[in-house]
Write a structure and sequence with these properties.
Layout lengths: L16 H4 L13 H12 L10 E6 L2 H9 L3 H7 L4 E8 L12 H18 L3 E5 L4 H8 L6 E10 L9 H4 L10 H4 L8
Antiparallel strand pairs: 1-2, 2-4, 3-4
The structure holds flavin mononucleotide.
C-alpha cells in the first residue's frame, strides 16, 4: 500500500488523533475483527447526549448477505469505492425522546458526536472510516426495517483498512489524501457573530 504523507498542519497544537483521522476511499477487503468493530461502537456509546437520551442507532453489515443489501442503499458514486469496504454501517438518529415522545431537537447533534467518537476510535486502531450522505433515503427505512416516523437516517459509514489508491478511478485516486480546513478564526468567534 502506498504511504500517504499527511499534509495537515494545525494552527494550534492539538492531540494528533484529530488530524490523523481522515476519510480515504481506497479500502482493502481484509475483514475487520469483530472485537475491533465492537470497540468502535463502544466508543460511540459513550458520547454525550441531551437528557442522556443516546438517540443514535448504528446498523452494520459484515456478512455477505447484509453487505449485499446495505450496498444497494448507497448512491452509485459512493458504490464505486465503498463496495470494497468489509464493513458498512448506517447511522440513524431517533427524533423523539423515549420518556415523553416529544421531539428531540438535539438528536442529530448527539448522533454526530457518537459518529465522531466511532471515527476517532477507528483511527486509533489503524482503521479508516468514511461517512456518506449519498444514500437512498427513499429505500433505507423499509430495507433496514427502521421506523421512518421515529428515526432519521443520517449517513452511511464505510469501515475498514486503508487500501491502495491505485485501485480507484483516476479522478478519485488524485484526491486520496487528507484535506485541509477553513481557518480557525472563521469557525470560532469570540462574542457576537459578524461584529
Ligand atoms: C455526513 C457526511 C456525509 C458525507 N458524504 C460523503 C459522500 O456521500 N461521499 C463521499 O465520498 N464523502 C462523503 N463525506 C466525506 C467528506 O467529504 C469528508 O469527511 C470531508 O471532506 C472531510 O475530510 P476528512 O474526513 O478526510 O477529514 C461525508 C462526510 C460526512 C461526515
Amino acid at each position: 500500500m502506498s504511504k500517504i504523507k499527511n499534509p495537515r498542519i494545525s494552527e494550534v497544537p492539538v492531540d494528533p488523533m484529530f488530524i490523523d483521522r481522515w476519510s480515504p476511499r481506497a479500502f482493502s477487503t481484509e475483514p475487520v475483527p469483530e472485537e475491533s468493530l465492537r470497540t468502535l461502537f463502544e466508543a460511540a456509546r459513550w458520547a454525550p447526549s441531551c437528557f442522556g437520551e443516546e438517540p443514535w442507532l448504528f446498523l452494520y453489515a459484515t456478512k455477505q448477505e447484509d453487505l449485499d443489501l446495505f450496498r444497494t442503499l448507497l448512491v452509485d458514486g459512493n458504490r464505486t469505492w465503498a463496495d470494497r469496504a468489509p464493513v458498512l454501517a448506517f447511522a440513524f438518529a431517533r427524533l423523539t425522546f423515549k420518556h415523553n415522545d416529544k421531539p428531540n431537537r438535539w438528536a442529530e447533534f448527539d448522533s454526530g458526536a457518537a459518529w465522531m467518537s466511532l471515527a476517532l476510535q477507528a483511527s486509533r486502531l489503524g482503521l479508516c472510516t468514511h461517512g456518506m450522505g449519498g444514500f437512498h433515503e427513499d429505500k433505507i427505512y423499509a430495507a433496514l426495517n427502521v421506523s421512518r416516523e421515529k428515526y432519521k437516517a443520517m449517513a452511511g459509514i464505510a469501515i475498514g483498512w486503508r487500501g491502495d489508491a491505485s485501485q480507484l478511478p483516476p479522478e478519485l485516486a488524485e484526491k486520496e489524501s487528507p484535506n485541509n480546513r477553513k481557518p480557525l478564526a472563521e469557525v470560532a468567534v469570540e462574542g457576537k457573530f459578524g461584529g
